[in-house]
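This entry is retained here.
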Amino acid sequence: MISNQILQNTIDGLKGIAHVDLCVLDVDGNEVAATRPDFVRMNEAVREFVKSPADSQEVQGHQFFKIYDEQQLEYILIAAGSGESIYTIGKMIAYQIQGLLVAYKERFDKDNFIKNLLLDNLLLVDIYSRAKKLHIPSDAKRVTMIISADKVRENNVLEQVRTFGQGNGGDFVTEVDEDNVIVVKDVTEISKPEEITKSANELLTQLENAGVTNLHIAIGTVVSEIKEVSRSYKEAKMALDVGRIFFDERRVISYSELGIGRLIYQLPIPLCKMFIKEIFGGKNPEGFDQETLSTIDKFFENNLNVSETSRQLFIHRNTLVYRLDKLQKSTGLDLRVFDDAITFKIALMVVRYMKYMERY
């Protein structure tokens, strides 16, 4: 259903063009929108007009018009004044509002379809039949983006994303919960993954400039059939969670960039606990002092290169070797050996994952 605010904005704009005062009322004679306050006294006349068979009529020096939504009487329009010119203007405005009802109804139907598509609430045969009925191409290339932010509803992020140009043409913007906004983006004209990421970064910047905080955007993979949009949505959801766990510094993250974090995210917690116990015994790997953790992070960052790591840490090479030897005695893992380094890296990621799951 179209909102009263939209109707008010519409008749305000039409009055500015036609210089005729207007009022829209429901079938019970209640005012919905008006360009001046005194139309309220015509409620009884409106109720009588609703009962009459006429679609338009001059009443008390004003032109009355019925506005239908699929043969169902929805509103009464009053155009202030009488005469042929007012009748013509009123008839055109009634037609305009009726077209607006159709457009918003179609938008609602499309939004409802996209929500059910994302949530896997449709049978395969229904997906294609409803897409055809709503004039949505079934073979366009699409990707799903999830936008997470603080106070999504309070900041009206959904409408802001629509305002910024997303949701036009082949794009759809919707929400299935209070925490995220979802963009199903048509990428038929976008050939490279980096262009999709660039689009997401531009959207993030626009939202930040509008005052939205704590923004993250997760991107699924590109799909070529409308039935696969739900898969892209699930991938984007995983990217959002995995990004928070292992890539918290990244504001935009794609499913294809998750790497081993995607595998760890799907591990059951009991298996994770067993793995950590086998690797570290009773020692918590996050119990290492900050100096040791910084050394480990920088060593991994430099692909296990001792010389480059010591240079970036501004320490002597022998100091770094001493720290690595100390870590080996403590854990039994020598980070200079590739297999041990991989084991240690995975173990740290598993611990991060477990801590995240404890919070959520």
The chain has three domains: 4-105, 139-262, 268-359. The mean pLDDT is 89.
